[in-house]
Write a structure and sequence with these properties.
Largest sheet: 7 strands, mixed
Helix content: 55-70%
Strand order of the largest sheet: 2-3-4-1-5-6-8
Shape: elongated
Strand content: 5-15%
Structural class: alpha/beta
CATH superfamily of one domain: P-loop containing nucleotide triphosphate hydrolases
CATH architecture of one domain: 3-Layer(aba) Sandwich
CATH topology of one domain: Rossmann fold
Distance between the termini: 64 Å
CATH class of one domain: Alpha Beta
């Protein structure tokens, strides 16, 4: 049962709110959704003292109490709805000390809601670097609430913050004067709105007046009366809001003069600003970005090569050992060629998945990921979007599902929809096992120009190809979807910091576990299903195969090994799996694919990674030669009926291009439906991506055949 005492964390984006949430809650966290919306709800339990534990709610970041996105609307609803189940008993406002003036605007708005408040000042070290000195005691007197400097990354100030929470929870709330005189810019009608809705806050009443038609907790009778009051007063929403902001900044300026001392504007730039002169340069910044991406993809092959080889040969040895230990039977075949073969096909790629997530975490933790948004803003605008769409697209390199959910922060409905529709074109971690196995098969492992690994260059090219196709599709959709709405990209750049290596390590381990656990379940179920489909078939057809090859074995005993191999292949072709593959083979033959690849295309719709597990199972069931120990060796030796290799350069490149563009993920389609609240958009998305994938794969196969 959750604690009765509820604490909400609010603050501007990049203020350190998530770090404080992690420190307070530790591992006692869970993610759900706010009632009635798709926005994530991060909650956790924190033990404040021996006698007080609290539910901590991490509300989406916002710059003010004037919401412009779905995330900000959630924060707005929770703080203004007195009947909300998430209504906090205490609000902790996280404020960036290095940008104190802007952060105090939001702090003053929260204070005027008349909910107990504690202000936590973060980034004090950055403020000192900027030459800003803050008088904490004076600031606390001026704001009328506790002000606690903290550094969640180093666990500093947390004990003092908990003490302030305890004191606030135990003391009877005292009346705090309004930060500004709202009556001077409104009128007596504000009191009636306040009484009508049962508020004790003038500022909450003003927000009800501004947004009564949109707030879900305002009933019809209240809406009618509020509309009448505002009509009589000739209320002008935009004028009152502008006057409010001006009044707040007037007082904030006075507070800043009394509580802060700043060095001369001619002071030396802080390190972050000096670095940005290079990394955000129109020319050098983009070249450095390409180098960073190049190193990322090179490292995926370079660093993961040895653990991948160990895992691959380890599973091969395990399979051979079990084959020698267990007696020949259907159960042994199921264990070795079904379960172990399927799981080994995915386990071998865990090192690459961990490295990819580790690299992304380093980019995020260091502050460089936000710079990528600014660098790519110009190219995004050429496609009708802006830099705010870059973060979901970059997140799509890890997984399209959370990346699509991250598009909620985009204010424009049109830009949000386009971002959702193109995000699956970004190559996610699920494609990585497919890319790796196919690149290893058809691209030689040699150096280009003496320093570049050719396989790494091809991998980087596939990721860039997905990104540029996303821009092309966005341009087309921007032309088709008409709107007069204009948006601007404003984003605060976080300071550069050394990555928290412990955090990087934990992320890599957790993502590896999730990959094994979540994908492993799907792989195991499908591996068992595929083994059954590949082992059994229509009795009449299977009986005919047995009779044919039994007769051949008697007639040509000297060719026993070759006949056994042909027998296993014939059984696989006449099994239920073989029948399915042959049924769809005419549609995929123009792309250079055989019936086994066709089966993998169908099963990998559940998840792209299943392609490798499927191939592992199919080639294990049909293989009788112990020398081919690994999946790559088996696929390299695969032959068509005419004796030509299955995986030629043309076929391999065609498959790579198909998986770059195809929507092979049920989970992504489900989350698109959830975010757009319609099956129309997932249907359009699946159709256009499949069409691009098929046509592109066909062109590549014809070109390289």
């Amino acid at each position: 049962m959750l604690p009765q005492y509820t604490i909400a964390l609010v603050g501007n984006p990049n203020s350190g709110k998530s770090s404080l949430f992690n420190v307070l809650t530790g591992l006692n966290q869970k993610v759900g959704n706010f009632p009635g919306v798709t926005v994530d709800k991060k909650t956790g339990v924190s033990k404040i003292s021996e006698s007080l534990s609290a539910q901590i709610i991490d509300l989406p970041g916002t710059y003010s109490l004037y919401p412009k996105s779905a995330d900000e609307q959630v924060t707005y609803e929770v703080l203004l709805n007195q009947k909300s189940a998430d209504r906090p008993d205490l609000i902790i406002v996280i404020a960036d000390a290095s940008n104190l003036k802007r952060n105090l605007l939001f702090c003053s708005q929260i204070i005027d809601l008349k909910i107990p408040v504690v202000i936590s000042l973060t980034m004090m070290d950055i403020a000192r670097q900027k030459g800003i000195t803050i008088d904490i005691d004076a600031l606390q007197r001026q704001m009328g609430v506790p002000v606690i400097p903290i550094n969640p990354r180093r666990n500093k100030g947390i004990a003092q913050l908990k003490k302030a929470i305890i004191d606030t929870s135990q003391n009877k709330p005292t009346a705090i004067p309004d930060f500004i005189d709202l009556q001077s810019i409104t009128g007596p009608w504000l009191n009636e709105v306040k009484d009508l809705c049962g508020f004790n806050s003038n500022y909450a009443a003003l927000h009800i007046a501004c947004n009564y038609s949109e707030l879900r907790h305002i009933n019809a009778a209240q809406r009618i009366r509020i509309a009448a009051l505002l009509g009589e007063a000739r209320f002008q929403k935009s004028k009152v809001q502008a006057d409010e902001i001006m009044l707040r900044y007037k007082r904030i300026n006075a507070i800043m003069n009394q509580c802060t001392v700043a060095d001369s504007p001619m002071k030396k730039m802080v390190i972050s600003e000096q670095i940005d002169k290079l990394l955000l340069h129109p020319l050098w910044g983009n070249l450095i970005l390409l180098v960073v991406l190049f190193l990322l993809f090179q490292s995926i092959f370079w660093l993961a090569r040895y653990p991948m080889d160990w895992i691959e040969h380890g599973f091969a040895m395990l399979g051979n050992w079990l084959n020698g230990l267990l007696p020949p039977s259907l159960l042994t075949d199921l264990l070795v060629n079904g379960v172990i073969a399927g799981i080994s096909g995915i386990a071998v790629f865990v090192p690459q998945i961990m490295i990819l997530f580790g690299m992304i975490t380093i980019l995020e933790d260091s502050g460089y990921m936000a710079r990528i948004s600014f660098l790519t803003d110009r190219i995004m605008r050429s496609a009708g979007l802006n830099g705010r769409s870059v973060m979901p697209l970059i997140s799509g390199m890890a997984c399209a599902v959370p990346a699509i959910m991250a598009a909620r922060t985009i204010q424009s409905r049109k830009e949000r929809l386009i971002t959702i529709m193109i995000t699956p074109l970004m190559s996610c971690s699920a494609r990585l096992p497919v890319y790796t196995i196919l690149i290893a098969l058809v691209i030689p492992n040699k150096m280009f120009l003496g320093i570049f690994n050719l396989q790494g260059l091809v991998l980087m090219g596939l990721y860039l190809l997905g990104f540029f196709m996303a821009l092309v599709v966005a341009k087309v959709m921007n032309y088709l979807i008409k709107t007069t709405e204009r948006t601007f990209f404003l984003m605060e750049l976080p300071v550069y910091r050394a990555p928290r290596w412990k955090n990087v390590g934990i992320t890599m381990i957790e993502k590896g576990k999730i990959f094994i656990r979540d994908v492993g379940k799907v792989i195991l179920v499908l591996a068992l299903l595929l083994w059954g489909l590949a082992t059994f078939g229509p009795p009449a057809r299977m009986h005919a195969v047995e009779e044919e090859y039994a007769a051949l074995a008697k007639q040509h005993p000297e060719n026993r090994v070759e006949i056994e191999h042909r027998h296993a292949t014939a059984k696989l072709e006449n099994s239920f799996a073989g029948m399915l593959g042959h049924a769809i083979e005419p549609a995929i033959r123009p792309l250079g694919y055989d019936w086994k690849i066709g089966i993998a295309l169908v099963t990998s719709f559940a998840a792209r990674e299943v392609f490798v597990g499927t191939m592992a199972t199919l080639y294990s069931v049909g293989d009788t030669e112990a020398g081919k120990a690994t999946l790559r060796e088996k696929m390299a030796e695969a032959r068509r009926p005419d004796g030509t290799p299955v995986y030629t350069l043309a076929t391999g490149l065609s498959l790579l291009i198909f998986y770059v563009f195809a929507m092979q993920c049920m989970s992504t389609l489900a989350v698109v439906k959830r975010e757009t609240r319609s099956w129309k958009y997932p249907a359009i998305q699946f159709t256009y991506m499949f069409a691009i994938a098929y046509l592109s794969a066909l062109l590549v196969y014809v070109a390289f055949k």
